[in-house]
From TrEMBL:
Molecular function (Gene Ontology), one example: G protein-coupled receptor activity
Pfam families per UniProt: 7tm_4
Taxonomic source organism: Loxodonta africana
Membrane topology: Multi-pass membrane protein
Gene3D superfamilies reported in the protein's UniProt record: Rhodopsin 7-helix transmembrane proteins (1.20.1070.10)
Highest taxon of source: Eukaryota
CDD domains named among the record's database cross-references: 7tmA_OR10A-like (cd15225)
Family named by the database record: Belongs to the G-protein coupled receptor 1 family.
Name of the molecule in the record: Olfactory receptor
G-protein coupled receptors family 1 profile domain span: 45-295
Length: 316
């Protein structure tokens, strides 16, 4: 906590500004409208999932409990980044103070890490449902589901707090530093420190392994057992439905972990700031948007609940 307090007390009025995407006014307007549209779609889609899960008793199962929590995370995750990003696109470069940059990094890393842990929890839920269907209700109790979500948040908070505090104890020379990114992410901020960051880089790799590699390996192990169990299903229709349910989860997993690994686990010598910014757009906009699309368009229960809700609203 002493290190975190130094974020606020660090001497010097250090500020950061984000590098603009483009200086062409017409292209700025296009990007603003595009990102605003994607953001509104993310908000409406994920809010719809939370609403339908909370209001329909047939969806009060562990799978949909985790899905609604994932949707809530996606809303918070994008809201930490996108409003400030849109503000910078629509006008002049607005500086963000050191404490503000630290706060954005802390919440961004916390929510992103929780997202990764929750995807691993959802893989475990699918493993129990498919490999041990008769014991599913005994294993995946409401208490266990809540404990796993709380544990994911607590672990993410701990890692994020330590990483953010460690980075913002570094000196940043000069009054105003330009970040070649659209948010205060860890790698671009580390590049601006005027000190030796090799230890900090090593710690970032350790945190990246804990947040990305370990959950991804657990997901892979879960899906090996899931695949073996599905192949033992005699009914072709049963195999198809099981594969369809799991493939939607794997789509989000591969995008999320793949893109994040390219940013956080690549050697620093092979990284490009422009590439990192482009890849970050994927896990900032694409995966939060895919979450509601995949789970509604490929899920009969959610589609049915949404359709019934729409019909009842129209009739009333």
């Amino acid at each position: 906590m002493l290190a975190w307090n130094s974020v606020l007390n660090q001497s010097g009025p250090t500020e950061f500004v984000f590098q603009v995407f483009t200086a062409v006014p017409e292209f700025q307007a296009f990007l603003f409208l595009l990102f605003l549209l994607l953001y509104l779609m993310i908000l409406s889609g994920n809010t719809a999932i939370i609403w339908v899960v909370c209001t329909h008793s047939s969806l009060r199962t562990p799978m949909y409990f985790f899905l609604s929590n994932l949707s809530f995370l996606e809303i918070c995750y994008t809201s930490v980044v996108v409003p400030l990003m849109l503000s910078n696109i629509s006008g002049a470069q607005k500086p963000i103070p050191l404490a503000g940059c630290g706060a954005q990094m802390f919440f961004f890393v916390t929510l992103g890490s929780t997202d990764c842990f929750l995807l691993a929890v959802m893989a475990y839920d699918r493993y129990v449902a498919i490999c041990h269907p008769l014991h599913y209700t005994l294993v995946m109790t409401q208490k266990l589901c809540v404990q796993m979500v709380v544990g994911a948040v607590a672990l993410a908070l701990l890692l994020s707090l330590q990483l953010t505090a460690l980075i913002f104890t570094l000196p940043f020379c000069g009054h105003r530093r330009e970040i070649n990114h659209f948010l205060c992410d860890v790698p671009p901020v580390l590049r601006l420190a005027c000190a030796d960051t090799r230890v900090h880089q090593a710690i970032l790799y350790v945190v990246g392994i804990l947040v990305l590699t370990v959950p991804f390996l657990l997901i892979c192990v879960s899906y090996v057992f899931i695949t073996l169990a599905i192949l033992r299903i005699r009914s072709a229709e049963g195999r198809r439905r099981a594969f369809s349910t799991c493939s939607s989860h794997l789509t989000v997993v591969l995008l999320q972990y793949g893109c994040c690994s390219l940013v956080y686990l690549r050697p620093q010598s092979s990284t490009s700031e422009d590439e990192d910014r482009q890849i970050a757009l994927v896990y900032t906009f694409v995966t939060p948007l895919l979450n509601p699309l995949i789970y509604t368009l490929r899920n009969k229960d959610v589609k049915g609940a949404l359709r019934n809700a729409f019909i009842s609203k129209t009739a009333s």
